[in-house]
Amino acid sequence: MTDTVTSTPTPAPTPPPRKSRVGGSRLAAVLRLREFPVALALILLVLITYAANPLFLSPQGTKDLLLNATIIIILAVGQAIVIITRNVDLSVGSILGLVAFGTGSLFANVPGIPIIAVFAVGLAFGAILGAINGLLVTLARVPALVITLGTLYIYRGLNNAWAGGTQYFAGDRPDEFGALSVDTILGFPIITLLAVLVVVIVAIVMAGTRAGRDLYAIGSDPDAATLFGIPVGRRVFIAFAVNGLLAGLAGVLYASRFNSVGATTGTGLELDVVAAAVVGGVAIFGGSGSVVGAAIGALLLTTITSALTALRVDKFWQQAIVGVLILAAIIIDRVASIRTARRLRMSEARDV
Amino acid sequence: MSDPRSTETVEPTATSTVSADTTKTLRDEPRGRTGWARILLGRDAIMIYLLIATIIIAMISIPRFASPVTVGFLLLDVIPVLLIAMPMTLIIITGEIDLSVASIAGLTSALMGVLWQAGWDIGIVLVLGLVIGVLAGMFNGFLVAVFGLPSLAVTIGTLALFRGLALVVIGDNAVANFPPELTGFFTSKIGATGIPTVMIGVVLIVAVFGVILHFTPFGRGLYALGFSTEAARFVGIHVARSKFWLYVASGGVSALAGIFWTLRYSSARSDNASGLELAVIAAVLLGGVSIFGGKGSIPGVVAGVLLIGTINYALRLGRVSDVVLIIVTGTLLIASVVAPSIFDAVKRRRHDRRVRRELPQAQPSGSVSA
């Protein structure tokens, strides 16, 4: 930061001690990845379950596993974007419900509507709902937790008002739409491939673009980000809108995947989604974590449910295990950050 | 995060003692209301007026609202939220949060059902129900206060964990055959007033929390904690210990709410009180507690809880569907937090204009920002 304009040609300050560690640093870097613990847990879980019950990884078993994870993965990616900016969006379950019901009613009321148009409408609808959150959070400068708790109720209420007792069933929708979550390419269901595409795109944007890096800066220290000239309000608004868009996508896919959509679709999903992001190494106070981690977290949480069934463990244990995982993720995160802080202090002390 | 614009006073009101320096003080700068005006025009008072207005409107416009039956059912409906809102207020004032309260209530309920089914004495069942809540609270408190982990994340974790344990304990079963004398007591009313008998205990708990928060050094310390943990530590407040006991209290009171829930509906199930945490937090924030910490009061929260309860009950009695109820709750919540921040913005702009008018020589960049 300190640009000292000196006349004498200063030699480039290369840190010599770093060089000596290059050999072993590849492995160390992998071990230090925030996604490492959750990925390891997922691999171990799958291996152990497979060893105990080989049917777990049969083509059908794998397909079910991926289908169950798809919607939570998409929601967790969106949530990760928001959490990285030191905000949170509790209204995603309600957004998903509204869009899923909207999708159902669109197919029922506009016969012959092209599927791509339904996707466009669903995404736009979700983005608008997310944008409302973003607007309230950035304009009123009220914590996102409160605002989105409010919109959680409001969106759910609107869904209730709109749907009433109506439910739309899979029979109301064209077969090609339902086929999206039945057909597979190379063993992967189409909607899962869609989710993977979303993860890849968002991961690239978050890691490689200015706007993406800005989100991390905002989450690390909003005041510093403002001083640095980052348009904090605009970036946070976009983060909420994108999260809404992804929740909209999840809503459309929900209508494809599940038989019925109605007034209560997606209720209570918000905490699962936040949990998936946290388990995936996204720090709840922003600034660190990645959407890939969040996606792996989502996959882990849904896999546990299937694994318990495959292992013939009482299904009632599932939620308790999820709770333990969340706590473990937070503790691992804390230990890692303490270690990083100590290392930084040491290296700073050396460089002086 | 804490905003310095609050009207809540932590220290004795700083009566602007102008020392002999060159700074020109602003004339007629509003010093904040004092005495009765402060009480009668404060945030809490507004909540109470709003509550009274709502009750009067409901009494006029909705037939059958003004009756002892209303009082009874309204209060019975409100009790779980009111109970849990008490420790929640204190916790949010310190800048933390507890999302696991409803799961603790559910765990208590499940444990009670299983123990009662197994033939334990009802007295022991009640005591153990309370004990499990206190233990759950200690677990939260340990992780948040001792390890210093973020409470939002921790209690999302324990929300899943405690609800999961409730499922493990009781599974899909429901236990309903609690002793009729006891369940009868929990729905009984005091004479002809329609006020439930258990309200006596509830009022007692509310009073205890009110006194602790507003009239003890411990309670005043919680506000300081919410403003700045660092500063609170320097002043000599035991940060970790205070937070730890708040979570223990939260666990204990949530267990009481779970006991009430179980005996009022005479049903112990794993999903009892699920989702209640968001209702409690909504009511507490509506009652004027700042989510940033450092601001809020027990009377305001009680008014907030009763306001939501009254509106819900009145609308239901007026045959308005549940749909509107949810929308009203959400809108009230957002309005209650957005409105003050708009007021603040207006007030600050007025203040800034004043400063600029009266101190024309002061450069914006060179002015002393307090």
From TrEMBL, chain A:
GO terms for cellular component: plasma membrane. GO terms for molecular function: transmembrane transporter activity. Residues 1-21 are annotated as: Disordered. InterPro entries: ABC_transp_permease (IPR001851). Coiled coil: none annotated. The chain crosses the membrane at residues 36-53, 65-84, 90-108, 115-136, 185-207, 236-255, 316-336. It is a multi-pass membrane protein. It is found in: Cell membrane. It comes from the Bacteria. Keywords: Cell inner membrane, Cell membrane, Membrane, Transmembrane, Transmembrane helix, Transport. Pfam families: BPD_transp_2. Part of the ABC transporter complex LsrABCD involved in autoinducer 2 (AI-2) import. Probably responsible for the translocation of the substrate across the membrane. The complex is composed of two ATP-binding proteins (LsrA), two transmembrane proteins (LsrC and LsrD) and a solute-binding protein (LsrB). This is Autoinducer 2 import system permease protein LsrC. It comes from Agromyces ramosus.
Automatic annotation (TrEMBL), chain B:
Pfam families: BPD_transp_2. Coiled coil: none annotated. Keywords: Cell inner membrane, Cell membrane, Membrane, Transmembrane, Transmembrane helix, Transport. Residues 9-23 have a biased composition (Polar residues). One of its GO terms (cellular component) is plasma membrane. This is Autoinducer 2 import system permease protein LsrD. InterPro entries: ABC_transp_permease. It is a multi-pass membrane protein. Residues 1-29 are annotated as: Disordered.
